[in-house]
Amino acid sequence: MEATTGLAWTTAVLAAVLVLPLWRFSMHAITVAHEGAHALIGLLLGGKLGPKKIHLNADGSGATHLSIAGIGKFLMLLAGYLGPSAVGFAGALMLVHGFPPGSVLIMSLVFAVFVLVLTRNAFGLLVAAGTAGLLWMVATRAAEPVQLGVAYVWVWTMLMGGTRKIPDLFKGMAAGHANDAGMLQQHTHIGDVVWLFVFWLGSISALVYGGALLLRHPLG
Questions:
Q1: pLDDT number for residue 60
Q2: pTM value?
Q3: Where would you find the membrane-spanning parts of this chain (predicted)?
């Protein structure tokens, strides 16, 4: 199934609606990717999850309770705000290189199930299960044209949502809330503003490059 330039633009607009006026709802999918990235990188680098594991909160925040030190802790902390953008960019690469749209959705489904298994609070279970359920329904039950459209919207939402998450980080920093940038400052003795810029640069680069791939090479 080939995608057209019109589909790429239309799904970008739909994703922008999800990420801007509907952010209070779509931010939870971004948090799933954020906390999932913390947990995945931390576990791969030898970290150990505590009893609370992952929590996803109603205000769009989350926490991954994982014990790790050294470079592993640095990479685990770095992964969170770059996680949604990484998911979106990987999906964009898959789409433009001819992977079936269902495979993009299944990749994200596996990631959502990973978060679901590790989540320990009721609201978080609802969010992770809802995200996984939606992806499963489309990936296994929908016709290929529907899968293609949803895959494009999903990828755009991850790319845009990763960037949209950064202003929330800035507000949290200004309010004195605990955050990844502050923990990176404690770990590296490099200012939290520097890490805010790193997160912003990484997410906006993924959005610009990944978005350009989707718009310029819609045929796969």
A1: 94
A2: 0.94
A3: 6-23, 74-96, 102-118, 123-139, 193-215
